[in-house]
Amino acid sequence: MHLCSALLTLAKIKIVVMSLFILAACDVLDIKKQTDLAGSTGKVKGKVVVKSNQSGSVMVVQYKNNHGVLVKLNKVTASREGHYQFNVLPGEYAFFAFIDLNSDGEFQRGKEHGNYYTNPRFFNVEENQSITLDPLVINGHPVMTDADIKIESKTLKISENIGKIIKLTDAQFNRDYSMGMWRPIDFLETVGGGLMMLEEFDKNKIPVIFVHGINGGPTDLKLAIENLHTKHFQPWVLYYPSGFSLNVISDYFLQAIQQQQQRYNFRKFIIIAHSMGGLVTRSLVKKYTQDVTGGEHDIQLVMTVNSPVGGMASATAGVAYSPIVVPSWRDLSPESNFFKDVFNWSWPSTIPYHLVFSYYDDSDSDGVVALASQIPAKIQSETTGIYGFNDDHVGTLNNERFIDLYKSILEMQIK
Predict the structure, then answer these.
(1) For a tag site, which of 192, 240, 328, 384 has the least CB within 10 Å?
(2) Bridge partner residues of 200 (DSSP)
(3) DSSP character for 396?
(4) What are phi and psi of 385, to 5 degrees?
(5) Strands 206-211 and 269-274, how do they pair?
(6) Cα–Cα distances in Å, from 376 out to 370, 372, 373, 381?
(7) Quick one: DSSP state of residue 203?
(8) Could you tell me if 251 and 84 are in contact, meaning their C-beta atoms sit under 8 angstroms apart?
């Protein structure tokens, strides 16, 4: 699997070689099953209307119907306006909303007001289907509770891990990261990932969120994390299965940030992103500034490093000819709806954007992403600063000059 992931660097897809290598070295049937399933994700969204005398964050819980038993899978915090969204695999689902009075994320029966959708209770989601549910009203009247129906808890780790405090030396980071791209379903069930904190939350420090790229993980940014000025900043990491579509990943990123904001009552944050994480971040910034009132003033700074912000033509070829198509490849293609949407969108002038690019010796790329993709003219026009390094795709993250630059840009935020 290590060789498989190394050979299949997106910038150097050679269709025939890739196909033969996958078939020889990997469990092609399992990989195809998982990538196809990850690519079938549907969407359920709606709004919660509170007519109760209670106040607090509104949590929305997702259940999957398993032969009459509700299996608790996920939960999100509704926006200030009551809106919520779930990305779901095909299946039959039910939803419950409640007012989280004590901010513990769990429904307190007999104390907190809530309500289930009924008539119908279950909603069937087909492959790639988007469903908008009617408003769900919480009015304080008695509701069916966990005691009235059979429920099993199988909450996804990536949901439970929002705000989890963890060390960069944790075993889940000391591993082969390729599962996140090739077996994204296994990743969700075993590794989990999430938006996690590397230290206790401190209201006096600005969160700096580190976002890895495809087939990567938080330790790729280890040196930058270790060089963070922890008197003023607190490090968080977004660890995600990079095989899923970038829309699904940025949706999770948005929901996780909003959940943390409601939990800790803060607004400001910074993002440092590498490689494909730059496109995930661009999508997040677009959604955050459109969905959150005043959101264009919350994001204090964004830095992307060696990111394919101009898309990758090699991904287009991979989607067209590869026997296995990873959903995130589709979004990396300049022809994809995702890419066109985030590329054509205009970056807010209120958010400083620092773009780092690299080239390897005399080549026109950093060994993975072409210069033309790292610094397209349209994106250059949106930046606060552009900085080039003679280094390779990952090596730049460990380049002393880059670390000095990164530290100096962050220090400007505290002067």
Answers:
(1) 384
(2) none
(3) G
(4) -155, 150
(5) parallel
(6) 10, 6, 6, 9
(7) T
(8) no
pLDDT in tens, 88-124: 999 999 999 999 998 888 888 889 999 999 877 889 9
CA–CA distance, 215 with 241 (Å, rounded to integer): 8
Structure-token pair, residue 140: 């304080």
Same domain, 145 and 163: no
Q: Which of 358, 220, 347 is closest to 277 using CA atoms?
A: 220
Name residue 363's beta-bridge partners: none
**Residue 238 resides in a domain:** yes
- For 11-31, the pLDDT digits (tens) are 444 433 344 344 445 577 788
Question: How many residues comprise the chain?
Answer: 415
Question: Which residue, 336, 213, 338, 340, is CA-closest to 275?
Answer: 213
Residue 388 is encoded by which pair of tokens? 């080039």
**Which residues 6+ apart lie within 8 Å of 276 measured at CB?**
213, 214, 242, 246, 307, 308, 328, 332
Whether the Cβ atoms of residue 353 and residue 382 lie closer than 8 Å to each other = yes
Which of the listed residues 129, 153, 177 is the one where a domain comes to its end?
153
Q: How many CB atoms lie within 10 A of CB 296?
A: 16
Which CATH number fits the domain that encloses residue 116?
2.60.40.1120
* Furthest C-alpha separation in the chain: 70
Instruction: Give the phi and the psi of residue 185 in degrees, each rounded to 5.
Output: -70, -45
- Cross-strand pairs, 211: 238, 273
| pLDDT at position 1 | 35
Residue 209 bridge partners (DSSP): 236, 271
Distance (Å, whole) CA 44 – CA 125: 8
Residue 104, classed as helix, strand or coil, is coil
- Indicate if the pLDDT at residue 4 is higher than 80: no
Which residues constitute the domain of residue 73?
44-153
| DSSP for 264-320, written as a single string | HT---EEEEEETTHHHHHHHHHHHHHHHSTTGGGTEEEEEEES--TT--HHHHHHHH
Bridging pattern class, strands 91-100 and 114-116: antiparallel
Taking the C-alpha atoms of residue 389 and residue 95, their distance in angstroms, rounded to an integer, is 49
Taking alpha carbons only, the member of 203, 207, 206, 199 closest to residue 165 is 199
Q: Are residues 145 and 240 in the same domain?
A: no
What's the predicted TM-score (pTM) here?
0.89
